[in-house]
Design brief:
780 residues; twelve-stranded parallel sheet; Pectate lyase superfamily protein domain-containing protein; mainly beta; transmembrane helix
C-alpha cells in the first residue's frame, strides 16, 4: 500500500395493458454537423410482475413530454440543433494530454424504451384490490429482513442482520398512483423509488408505516430498543407517505432519504393519526449514527431521537425539528420560525447545531421516471441552482433536463460464474455505452471490472439503481475515472468496492494509475493541474458509498486511496468512504470478538456474533479522500477507519458541511498516533477553506493510541509553509477554517488529546463530545 501525504505548494394479478408506441432513434454526432435518423422498433417484454404488451410504430423522439423539457443529445451537450454547427470544446480548453473530454465521437440513440429490466428490478402498479396488494407485499418481503419472534415480545419485533453482506441487490420501482395499505421494510441493498416526475405522484396512503426502516437486533442487543449502527446500504426516494404512525427511518450511514414528502394523513383523519406527517430517525434508546435527509418536506415533527449526527439539506420543516445527540446540520433548509433549531457551538454541553441558510450550490440527484404514456422512461437530471434557488426543496422537477431512454443504456452485470471472465465482459459492455456518449443506468447487481470505466462526455450520467456495486480491477485501477475537462458529469447511486490486487499486474499497459496510486474513483488526472471544471455546470457525486473490505471474506483486499478529486468545481452529496471495521465471516468461521464469548472471563471487547472484526494490516488503505481541485463542495462526508490521514485537502476554497470520521480501531500508536495522523488535514499551503460540523471519533480497540490533535489546518504563521506533521507545534493560532468541530471517545483504549491544531480538551470520557470555540486561543 502506498503512503500518501498532503501535497506541498507546488504540486401483481395478470393485467394486460395496451401501451403507446415504442420508439427509438439513431443519432450520429459528427465533427461538423449532426444527422438525425428516426427508426421504428417493436418488441414485447415482461416488466416486473405485470404482463405488458407494446404496440410498435415509428415516432419522433420528443413525445409524451412532462413538465420541463425532453432534450435530445444535442441539447444535452449544449449544442443548438438548429445550427448543426461545429461542436466546441469543453470548458477549460484542451491540454497537452491524450486524456480529455470527447467531442467528436459518434453518439447512438438506439436503446429500447422501455428497456428490458432484469429480475432485480421489481416494477409495481397501484393495487386495485386486496389480492394485488398482497402480491406486491409478497414480492417485497423477499427483499426484507423482518422476523417476528414470540408473542411475549409484542409489539416489538426483531430484525436480523444476516443480509448485511448479501450479494443481492434490488430496486423497487413504483408507478405513479396511490398505494393503499402497504407497509414494508426497506432492507439491505434495496432502493424504493417512485417513478413520478413529482414526488407526490407516488403516494403511500391508508397505511400504518408505509415504507420504513426499523431498529435491528431488538432481542439480542440492547432490548427492547436494539440498534441501528449497522443499518447501512438502502435508499428511499421520490414518493409521498401519509402513514398513520409517521415515517420511521432508523439508519446510520449510506441510507439516504431524499425527494420525499412526509405528509399528514388527508383522508378520514382521527385522533389516532396525530403522528402522521412526522419523521422518526431513531427508536427510543437505540444507537444510531446517520445520516442524510435531502430535498424533502416534513409536515409534522422531525425527531432525530438519539442520532449521533445528521445532515438535513434543502428540507422544508413544517413542524419542529427536535432531538439529536451530538451534531445536527441544516443546509439550505426552510421552516417557520422555531422549527429549525438556532445555531449553537455546543460549548454549553448541548449538541452543536450548524445552520447554513444559503449554500453556495445545490445539485439534486438524477432519477428515472415514466412518461405520461405510462410505458416509456426518461432520465431526469436536475439543474444546478444558486442563490435563492438553492434554498428549500424541489419536488416538482420543473427545471429538470429530461432525457429519453432511447439514448440511455440500461446494463446488467455479466452472469458468468468466472469472475475474471465476468470482469472482462462488464468492462467491455459498460465502456462501449460510455464511448457512444450514452448515459448509463446500472441495474442492481455486482459488477467486477477488468479495466476502469472512463467517462468522456460533458454532462454524461452514470446512475446506479438498487445499490449497484462496481468492484475495482485487480491491478489497482479505479472503478471509474472521469476524464479531465469534462464538466457537468453526474455519478450517482453507486457502491464501489476494493478487490485483491494482483501485484503482477502493476506494470500492465491497461493499468490506469498515472502516478502509481491505486484508488476506487478518480475525478480528473493527477498530472493535470489546470482542469478548472465549470462553476455553472459542476461535476457531481451523489450517494457514493465505497468500501475496502466487507462482503469479500478475503482480508487482503486493498487500495491506496479510496477517492481522489483532481478537477475543480466538483460537488459531493452524501459520500461514505469506509475501510471496513468488520467483514463477512468465512465459511465455518466464528466471530473473533463475539458478543457472548464462550469464555465469560474473556477481556476482549464484545462486539458481534455476525462478523469478523478487521485486525491490523488487513483491508489496507491509507487515506479515504484526497481533494486536489479547487472550489470543491461536499454536503455530507463520512470517512472512516483508514490507516493514515483520513482526509487530505490540497485545493483552495474547499467547502464542507458535515464531516463524520471514526479513526481506525486496529492501529498501534507507533503506526498512527506517533506519526501525527489526523481525521481531517488541510494542507499547509491552503489559504481558504471552510469546513463546518467536523466530528472525529476514537475507538482504539486493540492498542493504546494517543492522537495529538484530530484536525489540522494551516494558521496564519504557517500558511504557505511546509509543515512536518510529526514536528508541527500544537500551540497558537485560531480555528478560522473549521467551525463546530468536536471529538468523541467512543470506547476502549487511547484518547484524542485535542480538537483542532492542539486546541480543545482531551477526549477520554466515553460518549462525551469535547469541543473548541471558533477564533479563540483557548476554550472558555
Amino acid at each position: 500500500m502506498m503512503s500518501v501525504e498532503p501535497a506541498n505548494e507546488n504540486n401483481s394479478s395478470s393485467r394486460h395493458i395496451c401501451m403507446l408506441p415504442l420508439h427509438s432513434q439513431n443519432c450520429l454526432r459528427q465533427t461538423k454537423k449532426i444527422v438525425l435518423r428516426p427508426m421504428g422498433l417493436a418488441s414485447i417484454i415482461l416488466i416486473g410482475v405485470f404482463t405488458t404488451v407494446i404496440v410498435a410504430s415509428s415516432s419522433p423522439l420528443q413525445t409524451g413530454r412532462r413538465e420541463g423539457q425532453d432534450r435530445s443529445v444535442l441539447n444535452r451537450l449544449n449544442i443548438n440543433p438548429e445550427d448543426y454547427t461545429e461542436i466546441g470544446l469543453a470548458e477549460g480548453g484542451v491540454s497537452d494530454t491524450k486524456e480529455m473530454a470527447q467531442t467528436t465521437d459518434s453518439i447512438k440513440c438506439d436503446e429500447p424504451n422501455p428497456p428490458i429490466w432484469p429480475s432485480s428490478v421489481k416494477i409495481f402498479y397501484p393495487p386495485q384490490n386486496d389480492d394485488e396488494k398482497q402480491h406486491i407485499l409478497s414480492i417485497i418481503q423477499q427483499t426484507s429482513d423482518p422476523i417476528s419472534y414470540d408473542n411475549s415480545t409484542a409489539p416489538y419485533e426483531t430484525y436480523t442482520s444476516k443480509r448485511h453482506f448479501t450479494n443481492e441487490r434490488h430496486a423497487l420501482l413504483f408507478h405513479p398512483g396511490v398505494y393503499h395499505g402497504l407497509d414494508f421494510e426497506i432492507g439491505y441493498y434495496v432502493q424504493a423509488l417512485g417513478l413520478g416526475a413529482k414526488a407526490g405522484d407516488v403516494v403511500f396512503a391508508d397505511c400504518d408505516k408505509g415504507p420504513f426502516v426499523p431498529s435491528l437486533e431488538r432481542i439480542s442487543v440492547r432490548p427492547p430498543w436494539g440498534l441501528g449502527l449497522d443499518t447501512f446500504w438502502r435508499v428511499g426516494e421520490n414518493f409521498k407517505t401519509e402513514a398513520r404512525e409517521g415515517m420511521h427511518w432508523v439508519v446510520s450511514q449510506a441510507a439516504p432519504l431524499r425527494r420525499v414528502h412526509i405528509a399528514k394523513k388527508k383522508t378520514n383523519p382521527t385522533e389516532d393519526d396525530d403522528k402522521s406527517g412526522s419523521l422518526f430517525l431513531g427508536f427510543g434508546d437505540a444507537y444510531v449514527s446517520g445520516g442524510v435527509l435531502a430535498n424533502a418536506i416534513v409536515d409534522g415533527t422531525t425527531d432525530f431521537v438519539g442520532q449521533q449526527q445528521w445532515i438535513s439539506r434543502n428540507v422544508d420543516f413544517r413542524g419542529p425539528a427536535v432531538g439529536g445527540a451530538w451534531s445536527l446540520v441544516f443546509v439550505g433548509c426552510t421552516g417557520d420560525q422555531g422549527n429549525i433549531p438556532e445555531s449553537s457551538d455546543g460549548l454549553d454541553g448541548r449538541k452543536s447545531v450548524t445552520v447554513d441558510e444559503r449554500p453556495n450550490v445545490r445539485v439534486e440527484k438524477p432519477y428515472i421516471a415514466v412518461k405520461d404514456d405510462g410505458i416509456s422512461f426518461v432520465l431526469r437530471v436536475p439543474a444546478p441552482t444558486y442563490g435563492e434557488d438553492a434554498i428549500g426543496p424541489d419536488l416538482d422537477g420543473a427545471k429538470d433536463d429530461v432525457r429519453d431512454f432511447s439514448h440511455v443504456k440500461v446494463v446488467t452485470p455479466s452472469d458468468e460464474e468466472d469472475t475474471v471472465v465476468a470482469a472482462v465482459q462488464n468492462s467491455a459492455s459498460l465502456q462501449e455505452a460510455l464511448d457512444q456518449g450514452k448515459d448509463l443506468v446500472l441495474s442492481p447487481g455486482i459488477y467486477p471490472l477488468k479495466t476502469s470505466l472512463k467517462v468522456k462526455y460533458p454532462n454524461q450520467v452514470v446512475l446506479g439503481l438498487g445499490l449497484a456495486t462496481l468492484v475495482a480491477p485487480t491491478d489497482g485501477s479505479p472503478c471509474i475515472r472521469v476524464l479531465p475537462y469534462t464538466p457537468g458529469v453526474r455519478i450517482a447511486g453507486i457502491m464501489l468496492e476494493a478487490s485483491k490486487q494482483d501485484v503482477q499486474q502493476n506494470y500492465s499497459d491497461e493499468r490506469d494509475c498515472p502516478d502509481g496510486i491505486a484508488s476506487l474513483l478518480e475525478w480528473g488526472n493527477p498530472n493535470i493541474n489546470d482542469d478548472r471544471g465549470s462553476s455553472t455546470n459542476p461535476g457531481v457525486l451523489t450517494d457514493i458509498f465505497a468500501r475496502v473490505g466487507g462482503s469479500n471474506p478475503d482480508r487482503t483486499v486493498s487500495t491506496d486511496v479510496i477517492m481522489r478529486i483532481h478537477s475543480s468545481n466538483v460537488v459531493g452529496d452524501n459520500l461514505w468512504l469506509w475501510r471496513a471495521d468488520h467483514v463477512n465471516l468465512q465459511p465455518g468461521e466464528t466471530a473473533n470478538y463475539p458478543l457472548n464469548p464462550s469464555d465469560e472471563a474473556s477481556k476482549l471487547p464484545r462486539v458481534s456474533d455476525h462478523y469478523y472484526q478487521v485486525m491490523k494490516d488487513e483491508c489496507k488503505v491509507a487515506t479515504g479522500l484526497i481533494v486536489n481541485g479547487d472550489d470543491v463542495t461536499i454536503h455530507g462526508l463520512a470517512v472512516e477507519h483508514t490507516e493514515e490521514h483520513l482526509t487530505i485537502w490540497n485545493g483552495e476554497r474547499g467547502n464542507v458541511r458535515f464531516y463524520q470520521s471514526e479513526l481506525p480501531y486496529d492501529v498501534s500508536h507507533a503506526s498512527f498516533g506517533a506519526k501525527g495522523y489526523t481525521g481531517y488535514m488541510v494542507a499547509s499551503h491552503v489559504k481558504d477553506h471552510d469546513a463546518q460540523a467536523v466530528g472525529v471519533y476514537s475507538n482504539f480497540r486493540d492498542y493504546i493510541v494517543t492522537v495529538d490533535t484530530a484536525i489540522r489546518h494551516p494558521i496564519e504563521e504557517t500558511k504557505g509553509k511546509e509543515i512536518n506533521v510529526e514536528e508541527a507545534p500544537l500551540s497558537g493560532g485560531k480555528s478560522d477554517m473549521v467551525k463546530d468541530a468536536f471529538v468523541v471517545h467512543l470506547d476502549n483504549f487511547g484518547r484524542i488529546m485535542s480538537v483542532v491544531n492542539g486546541k480543545g480538551g482531551e477526549a477520554s470520557e466515553q460518549g462525551k463530545p469535547v469541543r473548541v470555540a471558533v477564533g479563540v486561543d483557548s476554550l472558555n
